[in-house]
Amino acid sequence: MDLKKLSVFLKENGIPAFRLNQVRDAVYKRFAGSWDEITALPAGLRERLRHGIFVHSVELLETQVSKKRDAIKFCFGLKDGLRIETVLLKLLADKWSLCVSTQAGCPVRCPFCATGRKGLKRNLSPDEITDQFLAAAHYLKAKGGEQKIGSVIFMGMGEPFLNYDSVAEAVRTMADPELIGLGQRHISVSTAGHVPGIRRFARDFPQCNLAVSLHAAEDALRGDLVPLNRTYPLSQLSKALKDYIFSTKRRVFVEYVLLEGVNNSRSQAARLNAWLRTVAAPKYFVVNIIPYNRTGGPYKAPTRERVQLFAGLLEAAGLEVTVRKSLGEDIAGACGQLAGK
Ligand code: SF4
């Protein structure tokens, strides 16, 4: 919701300021999704607001629920007709995690990613990012779900640090106790390795979590898999992460999509371990292995045994490793599958 626009509207129309607080609490705390639901406002005022201000800047067009009911994918329409996707994932039994998009499309163009293949349409505004949360929370509330959204990860469509200002404003709204009120430690931003963004994020949000999509620890291969590596090669990324860890004292989540025959050999596990050690001690990393989800490209998913072998090699080297459960594969809501279809 555009609270600034609402505030101006109320002022210009001589409506007392407490109405702003009523709307803010109804939308950000109780997840009202339409003016009709905000019954604390007089009917006449609701009618006027309906014609001037949107409760949400995103409109739910389609919802898909995975067979196991552990993933829900939303397709949202933006006011200019573009589409984005947002995914609720049940990573913990009692809470949902929300994966939000930061751009319509993505300019990074990782070849294994459905979003990247479409290129960039445009950056999302702060409201378009935050409203993905509000609309998803409204959906859960309308379904009578007891379970709430406990964490947010900026890992949907787009590279968050290529839209830094909007992402920063959305993080502030999500963390603000007067608005959504998630603790900063429950907010994570995932980057493909945008070095200036990592440096700003360390200064602006030292309590939030940082995830880096690495996928390879050698420049030639990483340049193919994550083309942003051609601008910010591993040597620069290493320095930025070293400084991030030094200043925040926080661990970094390292995302590694495992592609059969491309980045999952024994020597590549050893290289990943060696590269991480050039950045910081193993205790500063959690390596999330993400077995590749099919997106129609030339890549193959590794077998379960190959995934376990790769994870085991890293664990034996002293790293904390998690293998991501693939939630939502049947609804194309898994990592790298968001395409805004
Ligand atoms: S993996 Fe992330 S950075 Fe790469 S193209 Fe997809 S959305 Fe963009």
Structural description of this entry:
By secondary structure, the protein is an alpha/beta fold. The chain folds into 2 domains: 50 residues, DNA polymerase, domain 1 (Orthogonal Bundle), CATH 1.10.150; 273 residues, Aldolase class I (TIM Barrel, Alpha-Beta Barrel). 35% of the residues lie in helices and 21% in strands. The strands form 2 sheets. The chain has a 10-stranded mixed β-sheet with strand order 1-2-3-4-7-8-9-10-11-12, covered by helices on one side. It has a two-stranded antiparallel sheet with strand order 5-6. Helix 6 packs parallel to helix 8 and helix 8 packs across helix 9. The radius of gyration is 21 Å and the shape is elongated. The model has no long low-confidence stretch (mean pLDDT 93). Bound molecules: iron/sulfur cluster. Iron/sulfur cluster (SF4) binds next to loops.
Topology:
Layout: H1 3-12, H2 18-29, H3 43-52, E1 59-65, E2 71-77, E3 83-92, E4 95-99, E5 103-105, E6 120-123, H4 126-142, E7 149-154, H5 164-175, E8 187-191, H6 195-204, E9 209-213, H7 219-225, H8 234-248, E10 252-258, H9 266-279, E11 285-291, H10 304-316, E12 320-323
Parallel strand pairs: 4-7, 7-8, 8-9, 9-10, 10-11, 11-12
Antiparallel strand pairs: 1-2, 2-3, 3-4, 5-6
Helix pairs in contact: 4-5, 6-8, 8-9, 9-10
